[in-house]
Amino acid sequence: MSATITLHPGKEKSVLRRHPWLFEGSIAYFNGRARAGDTVEVQSADGRRLGRASWSPSSQIRARMWSFDADTPIDDAFFRARVGAAWARRAALGLSPAQGMRVLHAESDGLPGVIADAYGDTIVLQLTSAGADKWRAAIVSALQRASGCARIYERSDSDVRALEGLSAECGWRVGAASDAALEIVEHGLRMEVDIFAGHKTGFYLDQRDSRALAARLAAGRRVLNCFCYTGGFSLAALHGGATQVLSIDSSAPALSQARRNLVLNSGLAAERAEWLEADVFAALRDLRKAGRRFDLIVLDPPKFAPSASHATAAARAYKDINMNALRLLEPGGLLLTYSCSGGVGADLFQKIVAGAALDAGVEARMLARLGPGPDHPVGLAFPEGEYLKGLLCQI
Ligand code: SAH
Fold first, then answer.
1. Which atom of ligand 1 is least distant from the CA of 338?
2. DSSP H or E run through 244
3. Is 340 a catalytic residue?
4. pLDDT of residue 309
5. Residue of 199, 223, 225, 229 to mutate, ligand 1, most atoms within 8 A of C-beta
6. What number of other Cβ atoms are within 10 A of residue 252's Cβ?
7. Residues of the chain falling short of pLDDT 50
8. Is 227 close to ligand 1, i.e. is its CB under 6 Å away?
């Protein structure tokens, strides 16, 4: 072991509770030498060995625990075991890559900085921390071994890499390069996934269960799907029997993909779908002026608050769209509303939506709290893993 970090007195408590992050301010001493991504030994102020972590000298999260057992070597076998266990947990739940499946959910699968999504026989890997970046080869080989997948594409171009001093890394890691479009089948609907230029790894797998819920709620309803991306909720609503579906996104490429996805599913009533390239903030106001009304509205915006420091501005944005959406609902109408901001917790989000209802002059009640499916587990000691929260409300 090349280096040891010693924590300030008391700062071992979160580690003992299995929280994987060590912030700059919790570290009292650093002994030895380590470069970004190296494995360091972690100990408490009184010399108790707490485990091993990856070192991120340029990030506020200075170290991320790989293991809470100080004697576990961090090597190829470690990654084989962690990746194999994550795969087995999902297999045991009956999840399958054919419908699209998150294989590795970072900290909550014991692998900080490692995201992997499977689309059929292709896995898309995203590494976001210096430690994860350093172990790329071990992680790739472990993924291939556990999944038997044909191809692994790395899509490490997330903005958060800059905080770790890492530049973007994209390319094929396993299997022959292929630019063929990938397809998954979610709840019976064919969806193309653009792993090269799409958002994140190409698809929002975390909303799979909510799209199924939207399908169940859509029968006989006029649906408005805001921030539609490639049309996941829109197609689900058509599948569920919506009488019309208006979908809005500001991204032209996302809307083209959405239209192609609709064409792929020839059983859907395509004439009921309307696509609008627009800013949702303005479009909601325009729809009101035009006298449009809806029975089910989906609001699934991008992350307005990446961290708690953005929470105030984000709260204003969430309130604005929720208020204007609620004003477009017919009495008895349903709102599916989400926040994927790490900086906005479930309680705050509920307060924001409550405030929006008050200002919209409607009485709304909550029918369900929503979140991602079981391929996005949340470590019980890692609340930061619970980034996506949703509410189903009725007015
Ligand atoms: N509900 C989608 C995922 C939404 S991701 C699904 O199930 O797949 C968020 C989307 O919001 C992205 O497609 C992005 O292009 C779009 N977006 C971001 N800001 C926007 C804005 N101000 N107005 C309209 N769309 C916006």
1. 1
2. strand 244-249
3. yes
4. 83
5. 229
6. 9
7. none
8. yes
∠ CA 337-323-328 to the nearest 5 degrees?
85
Spot the catalytic one: 149, 228, 340, 393.
340
Task: Give me the residue spans of the domains in the chain.
Answer: 3-67, 76-174, 183-394
- Residue of the CA atom closest to atom 18 of ligand 1: 302
Pick the closest to residue 83 from 154, 132, 155, 31 (CA basis). 132
Closest to 253 measured CA to CA, from 216, 236, 228:
228
Distances in Å between the Cα of 194 and the Cα atoms of 74, 229, 303 are 34, 12, 20
Q: Does domain 183-394 have CATH number 3.40.50.150?
A: yes
Question: CA 196, 201, 205 angle in degrees (round to 5)?
Answer: 135
pTM: 0.96
Q: Which CATH class is domain 3-67?
A: mainly beta
The CA distance from 248 to 243, in Å, is 17
The Å distance, Cα 300 to ligand 1 centre, comes to 7
Ligand 1 pocket test target in 239, 250, 303 with most atoms within 8 Å of CB: 250
Residue 3 identity (one-letter amino acid): A
CA distance 55 to 64: 7
Measure the CA–CA gap between 82 and 73, rounded to whole angstroms.
13
Cα separation of 220 and 237, whole Å? 10
- Whether 229 is in the pocket of ligand 1, judged by its Cβ within 6 Å, is yes
Q: Which atom of ligand 1 sits closest to the CA of residue 211?
A: 7
275 Cβ below 6 A of ligand 1 = no
Position in ligand 1 atom list of the atom nearest CA 279: 23
Per CATH, which fold does 76-174 belong to?
Answer: Transcription Regulator spoIIAA (3.30.750)
